[in-house]
Write a structure and sequence with these properties.
The structure holds 2 protein chains of 2 kinds.
Chain A lengths: L6 E4 L13 E4 L3 H14 L3 E4 L16 E4 L6 E5 L4 E5 L4 H9 L3 E2 L11 H7 L6 H4 L2 H4 E7 L5 E5 L11 H5 L8 E8 L1 E2 L3 E9 L5 H10 L6 E7 L4 E9 L1 H15 L3 E3 L15 E7 L5 H7 L5 E5 L4 E7 L6 H8 L5 E6 L2 H4 L12 H11 L15
Parallel strand pairs in A: 2-4, 3-4
Antiparallel strand pairs in A: 1-2, 5-6, 6-10, 7-11, 8-9, 8-10, 12-14, 12-15, 13-14, 13-17, 16-18, 16-19, 17-18
Chain B lengths: L9 H17 L4 E2 L2 H5 L15 E4 L3 H14 L3 E4 L16 E4 L15 E4 L5 H8 L4 E2 L12 H7 L6 H4 L6 E7 L5 E5 L10 H5 L8 E8 L1 E2 L3 E9 L2 H13 L6 E6 H11 L9 E9 L1 H17 L4 E4 L3 H12 L1 H5 L5 E4 L2 E2 L5 H15 L2 E7 L4 E8 L6 H18 L18 H4 L2 H14 L29 H4 L7
Classes of the chains: A alpha+beta, B alpha+beta.
The structure holds flavin-adenine dinucleotide (FAD).
Flavin-adenine dinucleotide binds next to β3, α5, β9 and α12 of chain B.
Chain lengths: 394, 497
Amino acid sequence: MVVTSVERRPGTAEDAVAGVVPGEVVRPASVQEVAEVLRETQREGRSVLATGGRTKTGWAPPPASVDVLIDTTGLDRLVEHTAGDLVVVAEAGMRLSALQQRLRAAGQWLALDPSEPGATLGGVVSANASGPRRLRYGTVRDLLIGITVVLADGTVAAAGGKVVKNVAGYDLGKLYTGAHGSLGIVVSTSWRLHPLPATRRVVVLDLADPLDAGPLALTLARSTLTPAAVEVHATTGGSAVLVVVFEAIPESVRAQADATIALLGGGRQGDDLPVEFGQRPGGDGDIVLRLAFAPAALPAVLQALPAGTGVTASACTGVAYAALAAENANLLPAIRTALAPHDGTAVVLSAPTDLRRELDHWGPAGNALGLMRRVKHSFDPDGRLAPGRFVGGM
Amino acid sequence: MTARLTAPTPAAGRTAALTRRLREAVGVERVLTDPAQLRTYECDGLTNFRVTPGVVVLAESRQHVIDTVRLCAEAGVPFVARGSGTGLSGGALPVSEGVLLVLSRLRAIGPVDPDNARVVVEPGVINLWVTRDASPHNLAYAPDPSSQQVCTIGGNVAENAGGAHCLKYGFTVNHVVGAEVVLPDGSVVNLGGTAPEHPGYDLLGTFIGSEGTLGVATSLTLRLVRAPEAVQTMLVGFRSVEDAAGTVGDIIAAGILPAAIEMMDALAIEAAEAAVHCGYPAGAVAVLVIELDGPEVEVDAQFAQVEQIALARSAFETRIAQSDAERALMWKGRKSAFAAVGRISPAYFVQDGVIPRTQLPQVLTEIGRMAAAVGLRVANVFHAGDGNLHPLVLYDDAVDGQAHDAEELASEILELCVSLGGSITGEHGVGAEKRMKMAVQFTSDDLDTMQRVRCAFDPDGVANPGKIFPTPRLCGERPGPRTGEHPLQAAGLGEVF
Ligand SMILES: Cc1cc2nc3c(=O)[nH]c(=O)nc-3n(C[C@H](O)[C@H](O)[C@H](O)COP(=O)(O)OP(=O)(O)OC[C@H]3O[C@@H](n4cnc5c(N)ncnc54)[C@H](O)[C@@H]3O)c2cc1C
């Protein structure tokens, strides 16, 4: 049976997800249409994968199959923005950049700054995307206050709400954050907002040795300074720059920038961010890794990578991106082993096409993998949602 | 309500057999069965719900917890975890014929790791101890429930506890980065860790706030925050509730994010004054306690701005704490408010609704109207910055029918919160008390979906049954065509369960 009202067309090479061409592309215009599509695919036993801005479809391993690709960009309404409550509700297909533009008029923003400008809210949630300002504002899990999803069987379910404080029921928003579409399709999101900061001041310090970034970041973390971001752009075995960003009222950012230069023993200040700020290293030919580790382990992490690797690290938070040259693909297990004592993990974000199928994208998922499988089974018993993309081949 | 059983039931027989095995596993002295002792555990902070547990286990080690849960699972007997029992929604309400697993003796607190700003603690550690141990390193544990001198970290994690300063710093879930959890089948998993993220689902985020229904935490890794350079606290008196509420809105609209904005109305002030002599402005119909923290220049500038905003809303007194002692006194009035109400009323219900902050004035007017209609008084204490109300419904249990009227009123207030787009609980949890109200806030599809999580963690429903959900969901295979290989089979983990 075919759902006639939904916009649909055959998949093409342009629609490929990590090299897998979908059988069909549908573009629902409402939550009800998403539910219809899922009920239909359930009856027919077809696999489903949702996309938003397609900025991160290359993330995660290639899907085992994509019979139906659900393009969520038709769900792009801003449902509700109550400025006085610092809360917004928007559909999942809305682009983050479009949302930010609407919020700017009220002097507010959603404090997430991932590097992909075209990302949709659903994509940001599903990929758990974040940027340098996670140091100050946290990540999706700290800002998402409500979610509506459509399950594999077409059930539409909501959790959380549109108030910043709420402990009624399980927090399904956490479960869907970073789930890569494996538990259902995110259709609507509510967020806690922040006021746009009045001014910015940036301190940049060149480092001859990237390993110095670790102790300097620790010095900053131990001070009472309140930077929005502390970023390190480094080439292992080469040099690095440390970028410290303050965003607050004018008198505060100036005083803090001065104090930072005194504390670091050098650096220059200005109002502008360096061009590389917020960018991940690497290009199409590289294996881009997302590293997470105990925050103080940054030097050990840099040492675990081969010389010449481009790294962007959110220094005080324990998150970094590294661009591993394709010819170093065989070093991935050794890198993981070196990170392990620091509770560190390395996840492959993207990789050259020919390497995709052989790389272990996620690495070990710990002793809760069995429990994760039970969660997956409870939500998607037939394994039809984004099959093969998640940890443990789920 | 406590039911005394006269004849042994099959469940009682099962409990007796389990008791023998528990004694062998954890030691006779840690297994309580004496009725008088059992009754001391019959309720938590919500004293109008009482059930005497079948057995109480006083765990002293992680292994005791694992053994107890495993034996319960094998016997098919439900268990309820308990920390300090200060919960206000009946979350730790025992199950008769079930096991009450008391964790308050698991009190080891690890060394503070100042470089990573982390500390590992056992679940029975008291909230305030964490900041006590962290403060020599200029670090603090941010979540600060008013009960922080007595409540446990395990209980905080289960309830996703908040506190006055969560307006700026967030809730328990934003400050716990790792947990060791004994699942309801007795197996142990590590969720999260020291690092900020890990591959796979955020089961840690899912576990926090699950009110003991997904397993028992035996170890928690906490994130500590740097103590701010400056803290300033102001107590502001108003002649109308609307002006106080308006000030809250204006502060937020000015782009200022205070560490805390707390509000109390006339009745709550009267109670606090009687109990702790906090010296709040005489004649105030409402007070705000406003705290700003951060870099000194920022706090100074914004504090002056906040004062102007309050004066523009006709504040008749703005008092600035000149010392830590003065600050402590300002907070004492607020933090003791619940207990203080006992001074002005023989009995009361504490409620915990949330509304969008902008609805504050309307809600207060409406609560006043509803209370007047049934001839009861309501004292309002709340985390005004994030719209979390704690209406205290006062009544006299000696007067026939008043307890019932008060309960009705409290319930209607929650429905009012939901109708305005809010929630039935901001920090105290659903527990046994508000589970029927879940159906007001959520659809049956929403609740069924949440219970899919429950089915993954606890398919037999032995962990704290009868809490959160109005009706349990049976965890079985759902009908419908099966296609492709089951993810468990695919992983070689055997048959469908
Ligand atoms: C005067 C007063 C003021 C309060 N103020 C606040 C406040 O400002 N903010 C706030 O959020 N709360 C407040 N509370 C409520 C209460 O203190 C919190 O909910 C607290 O987190 C409960 O901790 P507890 O150790 O007493 O837990 P308990 O009441 O013993 O248990 C609470 C829940 O946690 C579960 N649980 C306990 N330990 C574990 C574990 N290790 N693993 C899994 N589940 C577990 C129990 O099963 C139960 O469901 C207040 C209470 C009082 C009496």
